[in-house]
């Protein structure tokens, strides 16, 4: 197994999060131990409500753990947020309809105070990275759902953060578009060498994309298995028909069943 303890970009130890509600406390995460090394592609999979997104939100300092420790790039999650250490891609593209695609990508760069010339260079570069050259002057409603999601990824890449957090970015897309974007995301990861945390409900997607797959239990969310991928970095879609891929997918499914009875 790859040793990520000395080069951890994201490190959680004994992480727990309990929400206080009108019906009493709800434990969303409990006793999560995980190290993610630089350049890894780590997917989180588990049943709805298991804490996959909550963990990502803790990394992004959108939620705050109630127990344990969490570091991002060697600092607290709040400090990492202020340092713009990550880009975040949500399930919905979240593009402002009154701004062009270039204008949407420009927004975080404006907030961060990049010069106009730097903004233009970065916009052009990330549009090329996600194969949207020539679409900068279009508005979101003029693009397909898949193209909108690529624009959302471009916006997250624009300020060149080392970490990319992705919360089910392709979950609402049809299977054909999803397959294509999975291929493109792998190519993007290879070119940029970002560290990626990726939430999904899809076993094939998790196995196809990841260097490691984190299997989580129903609430309170805990890690029940961490699966190292033995697949090569270059992965055509038809790798999903190979015995090696099927074996990894079987282990993921068994891990989900073990943590969730017979519901998977």
TrEMBL record:
Residues 12-243 form the ABC transporter domain. PROSITE patterns: ABC_TRANSPORTER_1 (PS00211), ABC_TRANSPORTER_2 (PS50893). Keywords: ATP-binding, Nucleotide-binding, Transport. The keyword DNA damage does not apply. PANTHER family: ALIPHATIC SULFONATES IMPORT ATP-BINDING PROTEIN SSUB, TAURINE IMPORT ATP-BINDING PROTEIN-RELATED. Belongs to the ABC transporter superfamily. This is NitT/TauT family transport system ATP-binding protein.
């Amino acid at each position: 197994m790859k040793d990520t303890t000395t080069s951890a970009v994201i490190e959680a130890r004994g992480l727990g999060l309990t929400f206080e509600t009108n019906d009493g406390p709800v434990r969303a995460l409990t006793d999560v131990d995980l190290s993610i090394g630089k350049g890894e592609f780590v997917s989180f999979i588990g049943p709805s409500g298991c804490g996959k997104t909550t963990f990502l939100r803790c990394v992004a300092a959108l939620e705050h753990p109630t127990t344990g420790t969490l570091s991002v790039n060697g600092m607290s999650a709040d400090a990492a947020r202020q340092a713009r250490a990550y880009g975040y891609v949500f399930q919905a593209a979240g593009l402002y309809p009154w701004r062009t695609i270039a204008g949407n990508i420009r927004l975080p760069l404006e907030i961060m105070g990049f010069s106009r010339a730097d903004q233009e260079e970065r916009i052009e570069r990330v549009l090329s990275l996600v194969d949207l050259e020539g679409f900068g002057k279009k508005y979101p409603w003029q693009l397909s759902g898949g193209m909108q999601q690529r624009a959302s990824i471009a916006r997250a890449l624009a300020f060149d953060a080392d970490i990319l957090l992705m919360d089910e970015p392709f979950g609402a897309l049809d299977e054909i578009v999803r397959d294509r974007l999975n291929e493109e995301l792998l190519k993007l990861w290879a070119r940029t060498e970002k560290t990626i945390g990726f939430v999904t409900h899809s076993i094939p997607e998790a196995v196809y994309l990841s260097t490691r797959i984190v299997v989580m239990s129903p609430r309170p969310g805990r890690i029940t298995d961490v699966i190292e991928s033995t697949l090569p970095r270059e992965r055509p879609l038809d790798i999903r028909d190979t015995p090696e891929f099927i074996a990894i997918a079987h282990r993921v499914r068994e891990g989900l069943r073990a943590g969730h009875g017979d519901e998977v």
